[in-house]
Amino acid sequence: MRKSHSSSSPPHSSSSSSSPPHLLTQQQLQITQLLSQQQHSQIGSSENSSSSNRGANIPSITSPASLSKSLYNLNSLTFKILITDAYTKPLLNKIFRMGELRALGVTLVLDINEDREYVRDATVVYFIQPSKHNVDILAQDIIRELYFEYEIHFVERTERELLETLAKTILDATSPEKQEELLQKITCIKDEFLAFHCVEHDFFSLELNQMFYKVMHPQLQSKTEMENLLNRVANGLVCVVMAHGVMPIIAYEKGADSPATVIAKLVEKKLSDLYNSSNREIRQLFAGNVSKGTSSKRSLKRRPVLILADRTMDLSVSVQHRWSYRAMVHDIFKMKNNSVRVPVKEENEGGSEPVEKIRKYDIDPIHDTYWQQYAPKSFHDVASEVSNALATYEEQLKKFNKKTGLNISGEDMLSGDVDDKLESNVKLTKQVINEVFRLSDQRKHVDMHTNLAYSILDAITARKLDEFYALEEALIIHKPLDQKDQNVLQSLFDDSTKGTVHDKIRLLIICYLASISSKKSNYILPFTKDELMRYERRLQRQRLEEESKEIPESEDQLCLPELKYLRSLSLDEQAIFFDELKGRRDDRFAQIKSSMLSSFNVLGTQLKSIASNLRGGDDASFFPLPLTQLVHSIMNPEGLDPHHSSSMSNLTSSSVFQGSERYNGKYQFVDPKRSQSMGTNTTDNATGEFGEAIVFVFGGGNFLEYQNLLEFCELPNMRGKRVVYGSTSLLTGEEFVDELRKLGEAQE
């Protein structure tokens, strides 16, 4: 048995000259096509019959608008059962509502690992990882004839050996007469190149957990295991490129023996093999090839650059506390698969003190307009806006009730009683009903963000997160602290009521990184080496006590594993802090200094906050993180125009990107389209600027870098440029520190 003609199924590419859709939309479009197809080709069908395999009634889906239209106009679809696994189920949940899946003909979504009953008249669609475990279950489903027809869609490219295993298992378990009948029921087997999760519109995660720990400590892995890990990362990046639909130029650090460099070379080889394969759909996907032997500035600008970097290029951004709304929701509530569990205080029916309950909320970056509006902003801005959102909503609902003659309250919208009121009024138009459902969704979103804001406020007041964030920012930008500031810093370590042990360890790591980077500057540290050692020993003792573990007798053995690992790295050569922003850091810290004793009104509560005036995503000041400086140096190799005028505090002047030049000449560029015909196809620098970049960080990503890159693209003379950001996984500060701890403990 072999795959059908379209074993590799690239997304439908659009010929529109307008800006390409977000990565999330592109993935959504491809899955919509997957579920919309009515396959009737058999396993042995000819490879030349590709056009006959798509349902004639399926519309062309090339944009978000056509996607929305298609979801409710595919009336001729065959209803089907969708089988997912632990990887693909959350992938779908992030980009589709159940109602949207039903509109695509999906009547039931089941897990491949659960016991499933016979539905012999149903078509089943498998959307799963190509693993031995899944293939074994799939083979048994076919042998047992659980379903009528089988469409098999692997989320990434499948090894031939797995397909041979599938075929052999079926053939060995059935008689010759039955074999042909079963094979006829398998209508397609495809690789869909979708092995990535979209966290936000242009933020993807490969959902490969603890990769920094696994790869940065190679003696824990055999050579084969290490190759498999890096291959999984490379396969995920190939999927992102395929969904994007344009062959990129690959950029990676010269001469570095790092995970990012190894992965870059693997991606180049895989993309080159795909481009030179016999698969017609893939070659059409990557049409518009640069003529061999030429590489003009104009042709490069039309193609994205895939930039690969290692997490060690900037450790501080993964450790420091957050202050923007989106990043705080993730960091405080440990958001997983866009879901959070939040402690909410609810009134007790007995009239006593409020009772704290845990509520689960699903963050919806596609439909939640409040999330889209609030996500990049500083928490204090969001808190004040959330407090007004409910009043605005109630006014909208009041006008709606007056216009329609209904009497629906906000509580009705939350409780579900609105359904009863709609059923009792048969005269309502479809437009009114749709508006009720829209208002119901809006009310639920308002309620969610109000509770999130209250819970964040509780965490700030209980743990003094504003002070942690402000002092970490000060250390990161190498701003000298006066005595009052130093007292605040010392209190964060000494006062047991401020922060958790994890909070204090994160601050201590920032202090250590500041001490390393200060060796190349004139920065006077606000602490001594002995003070750092004292804090370290105290925190290790406190953590061991909390975990009920044995405490060493010698003080010299009370060292934090996180710092033990960091001391083993050559961090003095890493780009950890913003030393290059010498002319701007005074303005940066002035915001912190001026707000040391200020307060802001949030949800009716006055909160003293050291960080109340720190920038959010909507403030005028822009400070590029090291990753953004790298992206700038590659996308704009000639630098910004120093003569460009701007009224936005010189945001576009080259001084903002002082330090970007340190990357000049350190990255090499490879074109997978030409690598096979030219042998080694590398250049010392790009021959022109890029209009689009896919930026991938090996070892864990975060919302701080994502937001910084979005702000970079909003600078006046950067408009028109686009950046997609991704990583092996999305990590909270605590999760990344836990990986550092495991690496340090492995060295003991």
Jot down its keywords:
4 domains; alpha/beta; Rossmann fold; eight-stranded mixed beta sheet; 29 helices; single chain; globular; 45% helix; 748 residues
The structure class reads alpha/beta
In this structure, how is the largest beta sheet organized?
A: 8 strands, mixed
Shape descriptor reads globular
Kindly report how far apart the N and C termini lie. Answer: 51 Å
Radius of gyration using CA atoms only: 28 Å
The CATH homologous superfamily of the largest domain corresponds to: Sec1/Munc18 (SM) protein, domain 2
Helix content: 40-55%
| Strand content range | 5-15%
Number of strands: 17
| The first-level CATH class name of the largest domain | Alpha Beta
Low-confidence stretches: 1-17, 39-64, 289-296, 578-602, 606-620, 639-655, 676-687
> What is the correct CATH architecture of the largest domain?
3-Layer(aba) Sandwich
Q: Which whole number gives the mean pLDDT?
A: 81
If you consult CATH, what is the topology of the largest domain? Rossmann fold
Count of spatially separate domains: 4
Count of helical regions: 29
Strand order, main sheet: write it out: 6-7-17-16-9-8-14-15
Account of the 3D structure:
The chain has 748 residues and is of the alpha/beta class. Helix 5 (132-143) links the parallel strand 3 (119-128) and strand 4 (147-154). It has four domains: 23-195, Sec1/Munc18 (SM) protein, domain 1 (Rossmann fold, 3-Layer(aba) Sandwich); 200-314 and 625-735, Sec1/Munc18 (SM) protein, domain 2 (Rossmann fold, 3-Layer(aba) Sandwich); 334-463, no CATH class; 465-608, no CATH class. The strands form four sheets. It has an eight-stranded mixed beta sheet with strand order 6-7-17-16-9-8-14-15, sandwiched between helices. Strands 2-1-3-4-5 form a five-stranded parallel beta sheet. Residues 1-58 are annotated as: Disordered. Residues 1-53 have a biased composition (Low complexity). It holds the Pfam family Sec1.
